[in-house]
Amino acid sequence: MVKNQAMADALERFGENRFRSPLAWDMVGKNLFAMAIEGVIFFSITVLIQYHFFFKARSSTSHLKPIGEEDEDVARERQRILSGGGQSDILELRQLTKIYKRKQKPAVDRLCVGIPRGECFGLLGVNGAGKTSTFKMLTGDSMVTGGEAYLASKSVTKEIDEVHQNMGYCPQFDAINDLLTGREHLEFYAILRGVPEKEVCEVADWGIRKLGLMKYVDKAAGSYSGGNMRKLSTAIALIGGPPVVFLVSRTNSKHNKNSCSWS
């Protein structure tokens, strides 16, 4: 393009008009056309991936061994769920199973549990017990191998968009933009949550006060300590008052003075 313009300017002095449009096909026109086609193709691929179009159907769980002896309360909860007693729970996991590719042993093996509305429930276990895999299935980050889960009566396997509208999520690793302030994060997520524009600032201020971020909220999030990062992520998860909030904890990295995040 620069060469074309320079030649046109030089020849114009001799009375010749050799200027060619930079959008001509043999200049940048073909490149712009290719970029437009690529944009459509890659956008379509992104949408298909988002809706799990390329994922295979759920694997069979028929090869799993029968459930062994369980603690009395675990067996009682399984029986309650399988008999339909968890239908009124805000979160119901019914035989939820996850088997990773090229693995025989399930990461999550036919988990049955129901959590009533308004209850705080802790999912505890050693490393490799399946806690993260369970959260990934419930949030739609990972495909369910077998069984089913319902959040606010919406199926995790069939109605994931509706599930997302009824949940807040504080992931294990903070999804924070280092360049945005804490206030900007909260206002941004309030808008994404559909909070009316006139109430966005009020909702953000509520999250700031609730998690004790007043001192740092107008500083770039990249300067926050690990504890304040977790507070900000928790405040984001609470925006909009979802009926279910998942808090994936890194408790071993938090100090006692930050325990207000869990109150």
Automatic annotation (TrEMBL):
It comes from Takifugu bimaculatus. GO terms for biological process: phospholipid efflux. Residues 111-247 form the ABC transporter domain. GO terms for cellular component: membrane. GO terms for molecular function: ABC-type transporter activity; ATP binding; ATP hydrolysis activity; phosphatidylcholine floppase activity; phosphatidylserine floppase activity. It holds the Pfam family ABC_tran. The keyword Transport does not apply. The lineage of its organism: Eukaryota, Metazoa, Chordata, Craniata, Vertebrata. The chain crosses the membrane at residues 32-55. PANTHER family: ATP-BINDING CASSETTE TRANSPORTER SUBFAMILY A ABCA, PHOSPHOLIPID-TRANSPORTING ATPASE ABCA1. This is ABC transporter domain-containing protein. It comes from the Eukaryota. Keywords: Membrane, Transmembrane, Transmembrane helix. InterPro entries: ABC_transporter-like_ATP-bd, ABCA, P-loop_NTPase.
